[in-house]
Write a structure and sequence with these properties.
Radius of gyration: 13 Å
Strand content: 35-45%
Largest sheet: 4 strands, antiparallel
Structural class: alpha+beta
Order of helices and strands: EHHEEHHE
Number of helices: 4
Helix content: 25-40%
Distance between the termini: 17 Å
Length: 88
């Protein structure tokens, strides 16, 4: 199970934060958990550290046009940058 980091901007942090349960519900088929962070120098920049169970499914959920209304209501601003771990 990889741990990934996802970063994106939001239009309004408080509005986005209120959508936490929506994120728990929509991503449940592809992840086991996630932690939420807010940048210290930009309150509208958020980071999620995600424990992924199915990376393809996660990508499909994020890119599914049927979920665009949630991104809009949570004030998510594209792009969403996802970073994978690097084995050294």
């Amino acid at each position: 199970m990889p741990t990934i980091v996802a970063r994106h901007k939001v239009g309004n942090f408080d509005t986005w934060l209120k959508g936490h349960q929506d994120r728990v519900n929509i991503f449940a088929p592809a992840i086991s958990s996630f932690k939420t962070f807010q940048d210290t120098d930009d309150p509208n920049s958020v980071v999620l550290v995600i424990e992924v169970t199915d990376i393809e499914k996660l990508g499909a959920i994020i890119n599914d046009p049927a979920n665009a209304h949630l991104k809009a209501s949570h004030t998510v601003i594209d792009p969403i940058t996802m970073s994978m771990p690097v084995d050294i």
